[in-house]
Amino acid sequence: DTGVSQNPRHKITKRGQNVTFRCDPISEHNRLYWYRQTLGQGPEFLTYFQNEAQLEKSRLLSDRFSAERPKGSFSTLEIQRTEQGDSAMYLCASSHSGAAEAFFGQGTRLTVV
Amino acid sequence: AQSVTQLGSHVSVSEGALVLLRCNYSSSVPPYLFWYVQYPNQGLQLLLKYTSAATLVKGINGFEAEFKKSETSFHLTKPSAHMSDAAEYFCAVSSVEGNNRLAFGKGNQVVVIP
């Protein structure tokens, strides 16, 4: 296992379109996190899964955003009706519930035009 | 709620000089503290972590940080800067009570001057 994998690395979309990102965590990790990072800022927490259960969602996660982790393995993050303000780097991280540290993927950079 | 403050968004350091990045945290429960490094258009790489063991923590690439509870600080240092240290550095705090989700500072962009 080479680490957390995110696809695609880059996505350019027109305003109003839907986009979906995928995250494949480190295989033995049962916790999965999504963060969003805008230019010049630190990452901000969006949502968290333990196995297939979505246990926490940030107020940043509007109703246009939905995340799933159907079998407790990979996760998807969908943004419906994208807006220019959604342009950001979307980062996925995974960890084991017995460990403090999380490991990040390379991120998906979304540009909404 | 947990939070982190990093002052001075851009930090310039001469090659071979000391690197010092300051981080102060706020947490109502015993914290876990981390420093991550990010290169352009890349994800975050863990430099080091504090999880209530030794207060002086050594990480990768010659970096270290010291947890000071009385000062609520976790400053990052490296004795001698290298050109390859040019990157963005983020301090983050989490806790078991918070499901280990991370709260990040705004980051420090480090520029190394030859």
Could you describe the 3D structure shown?
The complex is a heterodimer of chains A (113) and B (114). Chain A has 113 residues and is an all-beta fold. Chain A is 0% helix and 50% strand. Chain A has strands spanning 5-7, 10-13, 19-24, 31-37, 44-50, 53-57, 65-68, 75-79, 88-95, 103-104, 108-112. In chain B, the strands form three sheets. In chain B, strands 2, 5, 6, 10, 11 and 12 form a six-stranded mixed beta sheet that branches. Chain B has a four-stranded antiparallel beta sheet with strand order 3-9-8-7, with no helix packed on it. Chain B has a two-stranded antiparallel ribbon with strand order 1-4. In chain B, a hairpin with an 8-residue loop joins strand 10 (87-94) and strand 11 (103-104). Chain B has strands spanning 3-5, 10-14, 19-21, 24-26, 32-38, 44-50, 56-58, 64-68, 73-78, 87-94, 103-104, 108-113. Chain B is built from no helices and twelve strands. Chain B is globular and about 45 Å long. Chain B has 114 residues and is an all-beta fold. Chain B starts with a strand and ends with a strand. Chain A binds chain B through residues 4, 6, 31, 33, 35, 40-45, 48, 50, 55-56, 91, 93, 95, 100-107, 109, and chain B through 4, 9, 32, 34, 36, 41-46, 49, 51, 90, 92, 94, 96, 99-107.
What are the main properties of this structure?
heterodimer, A: 113 residues, 4-stranded antiparallel sheet, B: 114 residues, mainly beta, 6-stranded mixed sheet
